[in-house]
Amino acid sequence: MTLSNELVLDATHISVQFGGLLAVNDVSFNIPKKSVVSLIGPNGAGKTTFFNVLTGLYKPSEGKVMFGDREITDLPPHKIASIGLARTFQNIRLFGLMTAEENLMVAMHSHLKSGIASTILRTPRQRKEEKEALDTAREILDFVGIGKWATEYARNLSYGDQRRLEVARALALKPEILLLDEPTAGMNPQESGVFVDFVHRVRDARDVAILLIEHDMSVVMSVSERITVLDRGEKIAEGSPEEIRSNQRVIEAYLGKAASEGRGK
Hints:
Blueprint: E1 7-18, E2 21-32, E3 36-40, H1 47-54, E4 62-67, E5 70-71, H2 77-82, E6 85-87, H3 100-108, H4 116-121, H5 124-144, H6 159-171, E7 177-181, H7 189-206, E8 209-213, H8 217-223, E9 226-231, E10 234-239, H9 241-245, H10 248-262
Parallel strand pairs: 3-8, 3-9, 6-7, 7-8
Antiparallel strand pairs: 1-2, 1-4, 4-5, 9-10
C-alpha cells in the first residue's frame, strides 16, 4: 500500500531530558493516514519515551506534536485519548474483575453524553445510550474475535484473548490512530503470524492508522509500510522494510548479524 501524503500525526524536533540524561534527541516523526508504521530500536533507544510523548504521559523538553491541525503537546493523556489517539500497553492493563464488555463500556464513557443526573435517574435517553454502547461493545468484541467471551471476566481470558481485548478497548475510543506497545509480547510464532493479518484487518475495517513498538522483527517486517529506527535517543534510519533490512547502520545497531545473513533469504 502506498503511504498517504495526508498526515494524522506530526511530531517535530522532539527532545526529552530526564535530569542529565537526554532520552530522546531532536526526533521528528509522522504517521500518514491509514498507514501501518513501526518504531524499533535496541533497549534504551528511547522508543517508549517517544511513545509516551505522543500519548501525553511525558511532556517533551523541546518540540511539538500535532494531531491533524491541533497541537496536543501539552494535553493530558485522557484528553488525547478522547480526541482520537488510543494506545495499548506492553504490560496488559485490563480491569480483571470486569467482564470483557464492561472493559469496553468503561473506555466508551468519554463518548457518552448522558450526565450524572441522567445516569442516577435512569432516564429514557440514558437507557437508550447505554444499550447502544453495549451493542457497540459486543460488535467490537465480535470484530476482534472474542465475542463469545463478552460476559467473561477479563482475568479469566487466555493471554492472547486478553491482548485482543486490549485492542478492542482501544478501538472503543473510536480512534484515528491506534498505538500498540509490544502487541505480540508473549505470543508464539503462530500467534504472531495471525496478529499480522489482524493488524491489517483492523486498519482496513476501522479506517485507522497504526503505530507499533515491536521487538519481533518478523512481525515488524511483515506488517509495516514504514519503519523508523531509534538508537540512543536519535533517529538513525527511516524507510520501507526492504530499506531498513539492508541498512548497515541499523544492522549494526539493532538487527545484528542474523539479520545481515538473512537478507538474501
